[in-house]
Design a protein that fits this description.
The structure holds 2 protein chains of 2 kinds. Chain A is an alpha+beta fold. In chain A, 32% of the residues lie in helices and 30% in strands. In chain A, strands 4, 5, 6, 7, 8, 9 and 10 form a 7-stranded mixed β-sheet that branches. Chain A has a 6-stranded mixed β-sheet with strand order 2-18-17-11-15-14. By secondary structure, chain B is an alpha+beta fold. The longest helix of chain B is centred in the middle third of the chain and has 21 residues. Classes of the chains: A alpha+beta, B alpha+beta. At the A-B interface, strand 1, strand 17, strand 18, helix 9 and helix 10 of A face strand 5 of B.
Chain lengths: 451, 499
């Protein structure tokens, strides 16, 4: 096994929150798994010069980033959009850590690597950063939009480098009109697991589901930048976040005993993302769910399994949740970073078996919140105003009860809240498109329960 | 057992001011206006060694009303959300995080201790004054009219313990596991699961094939030490054994032997009840082993042992709960357990207890009367002692097993009960948890369950008694210690006597 120096790898801890007690005949076991990565090789603000030697010789610098900028014709309407995109990309380049490999891709109905332009990545230093910004100045708008081609080029570029962290940043302002949804799907499938990608929509002419779909498939974040002037700050933040990543390709491994059925595995904080279908079988009893790359951060997962019935007084392990890192050499056994146990205990104590763990209750509500916002907005678009009112009313109720202030604020721009506690709302007659898109894009953001 | 600490209104059978019977629920006496919620406390605690002070008759027997635990207040688990530019509604109607009622620390409105039920007659009392052991020690001093913290025992109705599911485990017996391992252990190291018999057992104690928890060391424990033996079993309906015991023997300063048995029952609605019972049993045992050889009077030694056990359990409350697995609804409860102990020292038999674990006396000559030597700290016992219910009525009530005394940091005031007896004939001392006596409640039933040769073979006798509980349904953990009491040929007196 390769010598994977501990100092590079953040410390992962796994905590399990659950009520293990089931009534007679009970089968469903819910648990919230909180994963926190801290310390390890994080630079923690120390200048790169000190941090770089942490990477072993021959492994090269730790990270590679490709910036994908929409250069379709619509970016010129208004012309400030293109100018802001150029400025934002320049700001992101300034944020690059010295030694990071990077490239800039101009995206239209085809993809073109405008810097360095030789089908390879440049290594960030003062000179290459200046050259990249020079190249940005030459960008002009014209052509269509085929996001799949941008991602495929980014994939080729990123995988030409021998680095641990591969990340993309994608900016679009329009619908993916110049390729079929199947083409985009195929591109996402081929890129999934090879690099992570944050996606941003600028203005209001883009399709929320396309942008969130890219971010979900490539384990990144999605957001709207309705006002192009906010792009630079957003890009800087995204790049800082990418530079903070220390370890890539972490998987959540779920071991379950014979006869246990997995109902779902979801990330529930910081955003809701259903991972159930992303499982790859690791061995007969275990499967892996991708979580992408990690810096200093904490995420929560909701695991729900069905166990076989057992008699009162029985106890079993319902699932074992571990975080694993593939062997960097590509072969051999993966490294287990940390693990937690999900248990099931059958009891005739009704008080114990009927109580719901507060964490489980909270995140069940947050997941429903994201779902009803989506359903409410879909109903509104399709003209089903009664359905939309009911769903968005429920969303207001959930956001209010759980203290999700940000989502509550976004909801209040779409509906008039009559009574938040009961979820009584009226649809607003006029809703700014940006507000509706913001709500839809950010509907999956959750708040954490106080511990 | 589970507990709930409830607010209780003292219900009095008569007004302490004018002796008029008040109506139910009255806060003030209808006749004289006496504040019934503020019945004065009885004079302070009596030391165990105080001599022949029959406890004063209680002002009034109490009828502690086990009120339902108060509903959890709607705690605001989240900030109120402010809704800009809408109606005036500013919501903060937030679902409360789930609390079990027992998570709420109960308050003792009166703060008064429970009634003394100790046989506080010192060893210096004139011989012959002791009452013969009839149907158990007479409870002297009814429960005091005060707010009584209560823990409920969750004994389920006796009935067949059905096993369903694919991998039903019988009451786990370590020997089974060893057999299975021996039979099917081709792989190096690692035990084989007792449930599916195909998976190996991972370091966490679960089968790596079917996930079932494996028998733990504490699931079934046996110990025989010279003349004393004890057996403890998980039972059929609980997932772990929260009982614990300790047996030992030592010598008094004059060289005569002293035998000790301690049995503890963890309160399962508190956190880490298994640790509490183990800590209490060990601490009490150690304390007795230290004090008896020094010549401390055995009854005083028992009192000190219970205090030591209490401190050991209290200390657990300061330790953080188990590391990574969070069992939120049990966090607030300090570890707690009951304790019962018996010491045979010379011709004395000392018993001591807190809670509802018991000691029975079963004479070798079964034609002589048997007796229960302890008086439960329980709701039912208080009802019976106060004369408000007969035993059948009290034990049929769902509150019957609520215990009113325990060891633990959340116990209001520790009141160790001790009693000294001087048996005049050989017999068997049965020290047990409610997991056994639920299936042999009266002294006569217990005597019937004890095999005839238990005096000679205490370990086998203890095994038979545990079997009796399992046959009855094994709804709780079962622990029993047997101490055969031999009488040295010098005794006078006509009956088993208290001293």
């Amino acid at each position: 096994m390769a010598n994977f120096s501990k100092s590079q790898v953040p410390q992962f801890s796994v905590e399990v929150y659950q009520n293990a007690f089931l009534p007679e005949g009970g089968r469903e076991v819910n648990a919230i798994v909180t994963v926190t990565s801290t310390g390890g090789g994080t630079t923690g603000g120390i200048p790169l010069a000190d941090a770089a030697p942490a990477y072993g010789a021959g492994q090269g610098p730790g990270a590679a980033v490709v910036l994908m900028v929409d250069c379709s014709g619509s970016m010129d309407y208004p012309p400030t959009k293109m100018r802001n995109a150029r400025d934002a990309t320049a700001a992101a380049i300034d944020t690059l850590r010295e030694g990071t490999q990077f490239a800039v891709v101009a995206g239209t109905h085809v993809a073109k690597d405008v810097y360095p332009g030789n089908g390879r990545l440049a290594i960030a230093d003062a000179q290459t950063k200046a050259q990249a910004k020079e190249a940005l100045r030459k960008l002009s708008a014209g052509g269509g939009t085929a996001i799949g081609t941008w991602l495929r080029l980014a994939d080729r570029l990123l995988n030409s480098a021998d680095v641990a962290i591969r990340h993309g940043i994608l900016l679009t302002d329009g619908r993916n009109e110049h390729e079929s949804p199947e083409d985009l799907r195929a591109a996402l499938d081929s890129c999934a697991g090879r690099f992570t990608c944050d996606a941003r929509g600028v203005g209001t002419d883009w399709e929320v589901k396309e942008v969130t779909g890219v971010a979900a498939a490539l384990l990144g974040t999605a957001d709207i930048v309705a006002d192009p002037s906010g792009l630079a700050a957003d890009f800087t933040r995204m790049m800082e976040n990418a530079m903070g990543k220390e370890v890539a390709d972490v998987s959540l491994r779920l071991w379950t005993p014979v006869g246990v059925e997995i109902r779902f595995v979801k990330q529930v904080a910081p955003t809701v993302a259903d991972l159930t279908a992303r499982r790859t079988e690791a061995n007969a009893r275990a499967g892996d769910y991708p979580t992408g790359s990690w810096g200093d951060e904490s995420r929560d997962y909701h695991v729900c399994v069905l166990v076989p019935e057992a008699g009162i007084g029985q106890e079993m392990l319902a699932a074992r949740v571990s975080l694993i890192l593939p062997d960097p050499s590509g072969a051999g056994t993966p490294q287990t970073l940390s693990q937690g146990l999900v248990r099931a205990v059958w009891t005739d104590d009704m008080v114990a078996s009927t109580s719901i763990n507060p964490q489980v209750a909270h995140y069940t509500g947050q997941a429903e919140l994201a779902q009803v916002i989506q359903q409410g907005l879909d109903a509104r678009k399709s003209g089903d105003f009664d359905g939309a009112t009911a769903k968005l009313g429920r969303a207001v109720q959930l956001a209010s009860a759980s203290g999700n202030q940000d989502t509550a604020k976004l909801l209040s721009k779409v509906v008039d809240v009559v009574d938040a506690a009961t979820g009584t709302v009226r649809l607003k007659a006029k809703v700014a498109e940006a507000d509706e898109m913001t709500l839809e894009t950010r509907s999956t953001k959750t708040v954490r329960v106080k511990k | 057992m589970k507990m709930s600490q409830s607010h209780q209104q003292p219900a009095l059978s008569k007004c302490p001011g004018c002796d008029e019977p008040p109506a139910a629920g009255d806060l003030f006496c209808g006749a004289c206006g006496y504040d019934l919620s503020a019945v004065p406390a009885r004079p302070g605690d009596r030391p165990t060694m105080a001599i022949t002070v029959p406890p004063a008759a209680p002002e009034a027997p109490a009828a502690p009303v086990a009120s339902a635990g108060q509903a959890a207040p709607a705690a605001s688990g989240a900030e109120a959300v402010r809704w800009p530019a809408a109606t005036e509604t500013d919501s903060s109607d937030v679902p409360a995080p789930v609390h079990r009622p027992s998570d709420l620390p109960g308050t003792d409105s009166g703060g008064r201790p429970l009634a003394e039920q100790e046989q506080v007659q010192g060893p210096g009392a004139a011989a012959g004054q002791g009452a013969p052991v009839g149907p158990g020690p007479e409870p002297v001093g009814g429960p005091e009219p005060s707010a009584v913290p209560v823990r409920h025992d969750d004994r389920a109705e006796p009935g067949g313990a059905e096993h369903s599911g694919d991998f039903a485990l019988a009451a786990p017996d370590p020997r089974t596991a060893e057999h299975a391992a021996a039979a099917a252990a081709p792989t190096a190291g690692g035990k084989v699961c007792v449930a599916c018999r195909s998976g190996r057992v991972d370091p966490d104690g679960y089968c790596e094939n079917c996930g079932h928890a494996q028998p733990r060391e504490r699931d079934h424990m046996e110990q025989e030490l010279g003349s004393v033996a004890a057996v403890s079993d998980r039972g059929l309906r609980h997932h772990r054994n929260e009982d614990s015991f300790a047996v030992s023997s030592t010598a008094l300063p004059d060289g005569s032997p002293a035998v000790v048995a301690i049995v503890c029952d963890g309160v399962s609605s508190a956190s880490r009840p298994d640790e509490a019972s183990a800590a209490a049993a060990n601490a009490a045992n150690e304390s007795l082993l230290a004090s008896l050889p020094r010549g401390t009077h055995p009854q005083q030694a028992m009192h000190e042992a219970i205090v030591a056990a209490s401190e050991a359990v209290n200390a657990l409350a300061q330790e953080p709960a188990g590391a990574m697995e969070h069992d939120a609804h049990r966090h607030q409860n300090a570890p707690a357990c009951t304790l019962v102990g018996a010491v045979m020292a010379g011709e004395l038999l000392i018993v001591g207890w807190v809670g509802d674990s018991r000691v029975y006396w079963v004479p070798e000559d079964r034609s002589r009367p048997t007796a229960r030597l302890t008086e439960d700290d329980s709701w039912a016992a208080q009802m019976v002692a106060a004369g408000l219910m007969n035993e059948a009525e009290a034990y049929a009530d769902e509150r019957a097993h609520a215990i009113t005394g325990w060891l633990g940091a959340d116990a209001y005031e520790l009141e160790p009960h001790t009693a000294a007896f001087k048996p005049d004939r050989p017999g068997l001392v049965v020290v047990c948890t409610d997991g056994l006596w639920n299936y042999a409640e009266s002294a006569e039933e217990m005597a019937a369950a004890v095999p005839a040769d238990a005096q000679e073979h205490p370990l086998r006798g203890a095994q038979v008694l545990v079997g009796h509980a399992l046959d009855g349904g094994g709804h709780d953990n079962v622990t029993v210690a047997l101490l055969p009491f031999a009488v040295r040929p010098q005794g006078a007196g006509s009956a088993c006597e208290t001293v």
